[in-house]
Structure formats: structure tokens, C-alpha cells
Amino acid sequence: MAAAPRKQSRAQRLFQRGAALAAVFTAVLLIGVENTKPMRWLETGTYDARMTWSLDPSRADKSIVILDIDNPSFEILKESFGRWPWTRMAWAGAIDYMADGHPKVIAFDFKFGGSEDPKVDQAFAESIRSGRNVLLGFSFDPAQIEDVSDVKNRKLALLARESLSDSHILGEHFPPADQSLNVPLDILAKASAGMGCLNAVYDDDGAVRRMPLGCNYGDLAFRTLDTRAVDYVRGHDASRFIRDGRYGDSTGERIPVDANGHLLVWFHGRPHGTYERVPFWKLVCSAAPDSCPNLKEPIPPSYFKDKIVLVGASASGSFELHSTPVGDAPGVFDRAAAIDNLLHGEGILIAPLWQHWILIAIMALVGWMVLTRLGVSVVGAPVMLSILGVYAVLAAAVFRVEHLWLPMVSPLSAGALAYISAGGVRYVTTGRELRATRHALERHMSPQLAQYALEHGDNLAGERRELTIFFSDIRSFTTLTESLRDHPDKLLALLNEYLTAMCEVIFKYEGVVDKFIGDGILAHWGAFTEGKNHALLAAQASLEMLDRLKQMNADWAAQGRDQLAIGIGLNTGEVTFGNVGAGQKTEFTVIGDPVNLASRLEGLNKEHHTSIIISEFTLEHLRGLVQTRELGGVKVKGKTIETQIYELQGLATSQEPVPAQTVGSRA
């Protein structure tokens, strides 16, 4: 018959409710703080790690080339062009040389504001116009001196051809209208094939992870240099800049964008080695090889055929370096990656807010379930850590394969905090009850067995099972008590020393000390040693107890103290065990006829001049494992057939069986 469902205590009911409330509170808390600066900082840290893990430079577009103004270019060309900014004739020559190779587009990632010299400006404009594919940059910068009205109108008129009609759909984080316009010189702007704004977007930590697809000034909207370059390559006269949910359609491709219309860039590789770089000095020397006799491999104009050329600076003095998920990089590298994404419909898709909330709630629920089912044991904590690890791996894998940014910090925090807070609730509510139970159990068994009993001991409420019962008694204890009547302290010291030693042996063999009955010990095996031969454990413990007592008697004799002898009875049978009692007074004990028989067997040692007597029921579990001597039968109450009993002499492998007359024999 199945046991009735175990009724929960008041403390357990409080724990269940409190743990559930703790999990709900954790989920609400994490949802509330997810968008705070510290949480964003932690999340972007996991984002950067996932991006680094997902790098694959082989997927980068090979048509993108960076004409790099690097440190060697500054050093090698300082005699020819002087200090930065260089004369615009240098750029005119570079455009003319590359134009002979017919690149798709040449885009400058810096501005040409103001006039250098009318003749130089005119020559540079002619090179831009003859190239027919040169894009220039403009920006909105903090206004130190506000543009006067006619200057501002002239600049706006210059940008009019680049303005888009869909300005209302742009995000709120683009430069406001009180900033100054920094546009190319009129003659250069009119000669160019188009212009794009150069303003960047920085996260809280100063890193660039996203690029705007457009920027606005008042009621006007413009494309960025990245978007403008892709439009030019694809032959768009005027790009639509549209946000549809989480996607933008600015170049004919469906591009994932964030809530502000920014492209979260998918970097294929690190700043060096992902896109081909041509040092500017090498291009100048290739155009004028006589001035660079040490140039070994000039770059022919044909190298630039069908290339998308981005002109930018990586030199340390250019102030263009900033942090990215893949390391410190110049702005031109970010633009190259953004153009690559726009050309191929790539980018990082951000999970919507409602999915964040669901993941937080699920992980909080998981934390609560693990704690309430498995607790904080050697099982619960590793299981929880494993679940958190699995989520982290899945989030990283989804990022790498699907380019989807799932939140990592807030769901992991929800799971961990729900588990920890539920554990705290458990400590406050059921902890006292558990500690009291553990303390009570440790009076009966080893601390390790007590912990096992708490973790697996639903049977503490009561269960019937086959156990091996142990009874021991000190012979002639009454006589000993009388001899020490005037020295009760010596009697108690002797008894405590004996009981301590015997309990150590019982605990060693995973036994449970039920109680002390005067000088007697009631113990049993099998309640918490599932799968083990409880009769053998009891037999081994009984034999070792005799050995231990023999050693103790030798020590006591040398000290002139009294010695002890004991008798032991072992019986195996089905008994009821569990907590018995009410209120503050409970004890873990065994009940049943097999207990009474074990007690009777212990008393028969005096009659048979033995130390350990076992029943036929115990012997059934010890066949071939021990040495015994048959003692005959004994009448058991309620049974018509006598129970056969045996003297336990030793283990089967023992070379010296325990004799019938030992230190533990009755006189």
C-alpha cells in the first residue's frame, strides 16, 4: 500500500511561498534595472566577447580597400607635403592615379572645409569632377561660434541635393539643430558625386558598436557617408531611409537596426588584416616612382578596378582611434565594416524588449525550481551553475549563427539571484527546523550520514523496511555500579569513554545509534545505506567493537581502573523506523518484533558463554562472509517454530576467529 502524501510543516509552507515571492521580486527587479548604465556596461562586455568569438575575416568583402594615412606616411611624406593637413594637391594626385584604375567609388572619411589657395582648390575640384565617383564628408559639430544666418543658409543650400524626404523617421539621438555645419568648400562639394555625414555614435563606455544610417539637422535628414557610398555603388539616385520595426531599408537590403535607426555593426575581423590596406605613402610613390627609389612593389592603377576605396587615417596623431568590440580601430575601419554590412544585408538583430522580459522571467523561474527541488546541496548548486552555463553558451551560439543579440547579464542574474534569494528564504524559514533535525540526527549517526538522511530522508516521517538491529549491554554493570557508588564521577567517566568508543565504531560502519538504555546501546543498519549489505556492516562493526574494547581494557588495567565485558545481539527483520514523538520531544527510533528479538539475543550471551549472537535471519545475509557456530533454537513470542541462533566468531577471511570466551564473554 502506498504511503500517504507527506504533510508539509508550517515552515515548509512559508518557504514555498517566500521562495516564489523572491523569484517574482527578482524578475521584476532585473526588468527594472536592465537598462541602467551598470547593466548596459556588463551586457556590452558579453557582447564584445561574443563578437570576438564570432570573428571570421574570410567573410569580409574583398572589394573594400582602405587608403590608409598611417604613421609611416606621415614620416615618409613630411618632406614632400609638410605638416598635416597636407596640401590638397596630394589628394588630387591620388584621385587622378586611382581613377585610371576605375574604382567603383572613392570616399573621404574626413572634411575639406575652408580654402587653401584658389588655384589649388580649383585643381583639386577638377580632379574630383573628372573622377566622377568621389564622395566627400560633412559633419555637425558643437557650435563654438554660431553661424550667421546667410552662412548657415549657404551651407544648407549646398547640402540640399543630399537631403532626404523621410526625416521624420530618424531616431532622436542624431545631432540637434543647434550644432554648427562643417561642410566642404563650395567648389569641392559641387564637384563631388555626393556627400555623407561623418558623425559617429558612441556607447556609454566610449566604444563604437553601432553606426547611424542617417543624420538630421533641424527638419532635414541626410545619409551617412557609409549609406551614401553603398547607394552610389548600387546606382541609387536618392535613397529611402525607412525603419520598419527592427529593420531599416536604406540601400535595397533589409538591414537590422536598433530603436534609434542605428546599424549594430557585425565586424568580420580585427582592424588589421580584415580589409586590404594601402599605405598612402605607397600610392604617392607608385604615382611618382622616381621620387621613391626604395619602392620595391609599386601599386598599379589597375589594382583599384571595381574597388570601394575609403580614404582615412590610422596614424596616432590623427585622433581617429577609438575602442570597438574587436580592439582599438580608426573610424575608417568602422565605415568599412558598416559598408560591408549594408552591401550584404548583415548586422546584429537585437531581441525586442518583451523577449528580454520573458527570458528574465524564465530564468528566475528556473532558479526558483532548482532551489525548491534540489536545494543548496551538492546537487542543486552544480545543476544551477550548469543551467546558467548552458544559457550563456546558447546565447553565444545564437549570436554567432543567427546574428541575434539575446540578453545575457539580466537573465543570468535573474536565475542566480532567484536561486540565492530562495535559498535565503529557505534558511530563514525551514533552516531552523533543518538545523534542529540535523543536530538530532548527528546524535545518532555520523555527520555525513546525517546529511544524507536529510537530503534523501523523506522516510524520516515513517517507513517499514528490513534493517539489522543491534543490541549491546555491559555485563555485571550493576555490580560495577555498586563498587563505584562512592565515586559517581569515575563511573560516568568510564561509561562515557566506553560509549564514545563504541559509537565511533558504529558511525564508521554507517550505523545509526538509536538510543542508550542505561549502559546498553540500541543501533541499526539499513535505513540510509541503500544498496549495501546492512547485516555485513553490523557484523563488521560488532567484531571491531570487541577489538576496540579489548584495547581499552588493556589501557584501563595499566591504569588500575575497572574493565568491562559486553554481549551483542544482532537480528534482521522488517521494522518501522522514523521520527516518533510530539512537539519538542521527538526521537528517531525503530519499532517492531525484530527489535525485541535482538534484545533477547543479547541476553542469551551469558547462557551460551558467547560475545555475539546472531539470528538465522541475519545469517541469511552473511552466507560465505562470516564464521559462525550453531547454538540451537530459541522460542520467539508469537511463533510456533523456534528461531535458530548462531555465535558470530569472525569474518570469513579472518585467520583468527573470535573465540567463544573473550574479554567480552560473560563470567
UniProtKB/TrEMBL annotation:
The chain crosses the membrane at residues 14-33, 353-371, 378-399, 405-428. SMART domains: CHASE2 (SM01080), CYCc (SM00044). Residues 468-602 form the Guanylate cyclase domain. The keyword Transport does not apply. Keywords: Cell membrane, Membrane, Transmembrane, Transmembrane helix. It is found in: Cell envelope. Signal peptide: none annotated. One of its GO terms (cellular component) is cell envelope. InterPro entries: A/G_cyclase, Adenylyl/Guanylyl_Cyclase_3/4, CHASE2, Nucleotide_cyclase. GO terms for biological process: cAMP biosynthetic process; intracellular signal transduction. Its main location: other. GO terms for molecular function: adenylate cyclase activity. Belongs to the adenylyl cyclase class-3 family. This is Adenylate/guanylate cyclase. It comes from Koribacter versatilis (strain Ellin345). The lineage of its organism: Bacteria, Pseudomonadati, Acidobacteriota, Terriglobia, Terriglobales.
